[in-house]
Amino acid sequence: MAPTRAVIRYGLAGSVERVLIEDDVLEQFGRYRQIKRRAPEAGGQLFARLEPPYVVIAAATGPDERDKRSRFSFRPDLAKQQLEIKAMYERGLHYVGDWHTHPAPRGSASGPDFRSIGEVVRLSRHGFGAFLLIVAGTAPPPDGLAVYLHDGQRAHELTPMERREDMLS
User: Which tens digit of pLDDT belongs to each residue from 84-143?
Assistant: First the structure.
C-alpha cells in the first residue's frame, strides 16, 4: 500500500532506497522542539512500514514521563522502549531507529549520539543493515532536521529530496 500523506523524502547518494517521514511524525518532532529557553530535550523511537523501495516512518514515540530529560540531554526509559517495540510490531510497524531534539536551529548529532545509535545497531536482533537517527532542531522541518543512517560502524547523513503530497514518483 502506497503512502498517501504529506511527507519529506530523504535519500542517500548511490542508494535506491528512500526514507519517507509522514506528517504525524513531523508533528511529533514539532511538539517537542526546544524553542523555549528552558525546554528539555525530548526523544523516542521511530517505527516504519516497509514498502520497497520506501521505508515509511509512520510513528514516533516519546517522550515518556520516566525518561531522564534536561536542556542538553535525553536518556530514555529502556524498559518502556522494549514494550513499545513489541506493541508496534504487533501493529505491523518495525523499529528503525531513534529521534531526539537539540536546542539549535538545525539538529546535529553529537559523538555520544552516534555511539549510542551505533551500539543499538550492533546489539539489537534485527534484519536491517542500519538504523536511523533523527535530531530535530528548533527550525521547522526539513531545515531543522538532521537525518542519519548508522550501520553500526559509521553514520551517513541523508539529504532531504523534497516535500509534497502523495510522493511516490
Answer: 999 999 999 999 999 999 999 999 999 998 988 988 888 887 777 788 999 999 999 889
- Amino acid of residue 9: R
What is the extent of the structural domain holding 68? 7-159
User: What is the CATH classification number for the domain harbouring 33?
Assistant: 3.40.140.10
- SS3 for 81? helix
Report the alpha-carbon distance of residue 75 to residue 86 in Å, rounded: 20
The pTM score is 0.87
Long-range CB pairs of 75-84 (<8 Å, 24+ gap) are 76/43, 76/44, 76/45, 81/44, 81/45, 84/44, 84/45
Q: Is 61 exposed, middle or buried (0-12, 13-18, 19+ CB in 10 A)?
A: buried
